[in-house]
What does this fold into?
Amino acid sequence: MVMIADNVEADTQGRILTAAERLFREIGYQKTTVADIAKVLRMSPANVYRFFESKRAIHEAVAKRLMDEVEVAATTIAFETDEPRTRMRRLLSTIHHMNAERYTGDEKIHQMVAMAIEEDWDVCTAHFERITGIVAKAIDDGVKQGVFEAPDIALAAMSTTTAMSRFFHPQMIAQCANKPGPSLDEMIDFVLAALAPRARA
It folds into this structure.
């Protein structure tokens, strides 16, 4: 009985988030209210509050769901067994393209995520930490195979994600789209060169 109740609760939470995301895309993050979400689902606002304690909690959960999709795709690539440089290129490229798709192709969703980052939501901080951890896994594999050189894996991963900020960070992707700078492939080439083993005298 407990499992059935848990499944029903998870299903209801999922439906609330799906409805919320749809409204965020249609009328915008700021204009959407809990009453709007409840109306779409034909339930009372009080029932929505049974599952999410506040409007902000719904916003955070929607943002987390979008970010989770990127993390799942990135993790899958990081655990593949192909050549480390090829894998790293695909990993960094995939994170960029998924973020660009989700956050810059849709102005209203972009506003939601931009606000989350500006307000320093824990969900955003946790996401950036997990992405850095995923990159660290790919670097560590490369080091073990002698393809990369990184005495400090954690520092190398943080340096890599910092170098890729223009292509990872939702606001920077939008702001830098038409500004001078390296292309995605050029930036990845730079990162791979920085990770390459040093020539010994």
